[in-house]
Amino acid sequence: MIRRNGAWCWVVLAGLVGLVCCAWMTAAEWKSGKVWPEPKVIDPGDATRPPSDAIVLFDGKDLSQWEGGDQWIVKDGYAISAKTSITTKQAFGSCQLHVEWAAPEKVEGEGQGRGNSGVYLMNNYEVQILDSYNNTTYYDGQCGAIYKQHPPLVNACRKPGQWQTYDILFEAPQFDKSGKLKRPGYLTVLHNGVVVQNHAEIEGTTAWDRPPAYTAHPDKLPLQLQFHGNPVRFRNIWIREL
Ligand code: MG
After folding, report:
1. Given pLDDT bands bounded at 50, 70 and 90, which one contains residue 2?
2. Residue 181 contacts residue 173 (beta carbons within 8 Å)
3. Residues 40-58 pLDDT 10s
4. What does the buried/exposed string (b/e) look like for 52-87 if buried means 16 or more CB atoms within 10 Å of the residue's CB?
5. Residues with a beta carbon under 5 angstroms from ion ligand 1
6. pTM given for the model
7. 135: CA distance to ligand 1 center in Å?
8. What's the gap in Å between 11 CA and the centre of ligand 1?
9. Residue 218 contacts residue 68 (beta carbons within 8 Å)
10. pLDDT (tens digit, 9 = 90+) per residue, 173-193?
11. How many angstroms does the Cα of residue 29 sit away from the middle of ligand 1?
């Protein structure tokens, strides 16, 4: 009797497997129906080469693509900030930006006075550069902060003098014809490969002496690298417009 029940179990099981197989074989693949253009093929580059479709803003040789670039010192494949902030001659909106930088090896000053520089998207929105290695300051002003708006999620700073990377995804704010904010800007920042800003909403300009506020501006504006009194080094800067 037991043996006969066992046989029935096998028959039922085989039937179920057959049904599942039939259902799988007759299911149709779902496709969105949207007609997409083929994504452009690019060479992604590597640690030493930018992607093939990037605009190289500094390759270690000269700062000819920057207003004020002649005020900075270029040597040994890097640039040292000096005298003035510099801005790109070309204007950019939403973008992917790669910047390598190093705070001075010789530690001088403290808080905001140590290795201070900054990447200003559209000349208005600063991702702070600071030597925040064993150097405490207000958290929304430390390295990787969207200045006075969002502290970094973690402090991923390397030691002073060591090269560090910023990989920044920037979505430009949008304004309507009357100048009213339609959509705020957003920033995602990877510091040394670590996410320190995750699609953080930009609340407006990142000033030192006033709260953030938006003022309507064109769709594209120059990118700025800040001079804040400290000789911060830069190399390998490239941008991709999005
Ligand atoms: Mg700064």
Report:
1. very low
2. yes
3. 999 999 988 999 999 999 9
4. eebeebbeeeebebbebbeebebeeebbbbeeebbb
5. 116, 118, 226, 228
6. 0.88
7. 14
8. 74
9. no
10. 999 999 999 999 999 999 999
11. 52
